Amino acid sequence: MKLEPRFKSVLLILTSLALVVWLVFLLISKFWVFTEPAETYDTNYTGVAYLKEENIKEFPLTDLQIFDKEYNFKVLSIEGGSIKSIPSEVGQFTSLVNIKITDSALEKIPPEIGTLVNLETLDLTGNDLSSLPTEIGQLRKLKKLYLTGNPIDPEGRIRIQELLPNTEISF
Asked: pTM, whole model, 2 decimals?
């Protein structure tokens, strides 16, 4: 079967477009975007960035910046890996309502966490945090803070409770 030149051009354009879409999908495939509320979150939010990788070693800042421009996400969930710190640029994601960074090697939270004024839930279960910055006390909307499985001493726990008197905290 012989195709006319204009059909060959259309076919080439469609093939190229499909390839571009496939490449973009590969670049962001580590993020799952829920358009319906995720069952594991007590929210009505539509933008969920979910990343679960055993070998992740660094906070995926660049990927999240691109993702945020596209989806203006409200929930960030990173499970597993060996992330030791969160960069200060996390403060730019002011639309975040829920953050879950669990079962990693997180040792430090930046003071810029205090700029996330819409944050309601912060789950840092199963990390290596021994303290939190005092700026955590600026999170007036924070309802729940999960710190189970972190080596926070009794004095540190009292300090966190004093900084967040209206927050339900699990140690």
From this structure: 0.69
